[in-house]
Design brief:
- With 277 residues, the chain is α+β, with helices and mostly antiparallel strands.
- It has one domain: Alpha-Beta Plaits (2-Layer Sandwich).
- It is 27% helix and 25% strand.
- The protein is built from 10 helices and 12 strands.
- α1 runs antiparallel to α4.
């Protein structure tokens, strides 16, 4: 389904690619690390940046290298071995798709020559569709801004789909799941998405991208969530995800099918990126 048919914004403000790579067992040639570093020579390395991008950097394109954190990735409802078993991830973002696709093509060539593979998740950045002024103040005004890799070294990726029943709902029905629900005596009986995830607002930097071609399409994820946080806030991320998955307090999740919850560690260069591959 298309955003315009769902009362959701159609505006695209940027693009992201998630390039999950796997390599065959054995020694990694040091030349591969040099070649990967060369791919990003004209792009901004997000590992070294505090805050959001400048217009100029966003136009050129930006990258972040992440090494898989052993034992932390977990399977959910949608089995996707290329993600679950990935040794690492390169997340790209930019104003236009061209520089990102050029990087992807170069990485795929390098990895395949080394006996590896690349699995790509693509997404577009959009303005928020379910956000009033009051919700913006609650959920975003005090949100944790992006930070350097040394400050927020851990990251998690959560691809997901909404069920067909979700997309068939009236937009006001869908929007109601983000707010608390109350009984006839005005007692809160359900937290809803906003309160179930509230602990993450000041502690976890969150970014969300949408499927480029529309929602509910075979072989695509409707959304890919990306989160960065400090080591000390890893329990907060787990708490937030547990709260969202608790359908007694967040009924929205009855309509969610998740791909793997992938965990990685942000690194500054390809040598560290390939260390455990």
């Amino acid at each position: 389904m298309q955003p315009q048919h769902l009362n959701m914004t159609t505006t695209v403000t940027g693009h992201q690619l998630f390039l999950f790579f796997s390599l065959a067992d054995g020694e990694v040639d040091g030349k591969l690390a040099d070649a990967i570093d060369l791919l990003g020579q004209h792009m901004e390395n997000m590992h070294d940046v505090d805050g959001g991008p400048s217009d100029e950097a966003f136009e050129r394109g930006r990258f972040q290298l992440l090494r898989a954190e052993a034992g932390l990735t977990s399977e959910q409802q949608i089995v996707h071995p290329a993600l679950t078993e990935a040794h690492g991830l390169i997340r790209l973002e930019g104003a236009s798709l061209g520089p990102l696709k050029e990087y992807e093509t170069g990485l795929r060539t390098l990895m395949e020559a080394a006996g590896g593979s690349v699995e790509t998740l693509a997404g577009v950045m959009r303005p928020r569709s379910y956000t009033s002024h009051a919700m913006t103040e609650f959920a975003y005004a005090h949100a944790l801004p992006p930070g350097k890799g040394e400050k927020y070294p851990l990251a998690a990726v959560t691809p997901m789909n909404k069920t067909d029943a979700w997309w068939q709902m009236d937009f006001l029905h869908r929007e109601s799941f983000f707010l608390p629900r109350y009984d006839e005596n005005e007692n809160m009986v359900v937290k809803g998405h906003a309160l179930a995830s509230a602990a993450g607002v000041p502690n976890i930097n969150r970014r969300l991208v949408h499927a480029p071609e529309g929602y509910g399409l075979e072989g695509n994820y409707d959304f890919v969530g990306y989160f960065e946080f400090a080591e000390a806030d890893a329990p907060v991320f787990r708490e937030v995800m547990a709260g969202l998955r608790d359908t007694s307090q967040n009924p929205e999740w009855k309509y969610v099918l998740e791909g793997p919850e992938w965990w990685g560690r942000r690194v500054s260069g390809a040598a560290a990126f390939l260390e455990r591959a």
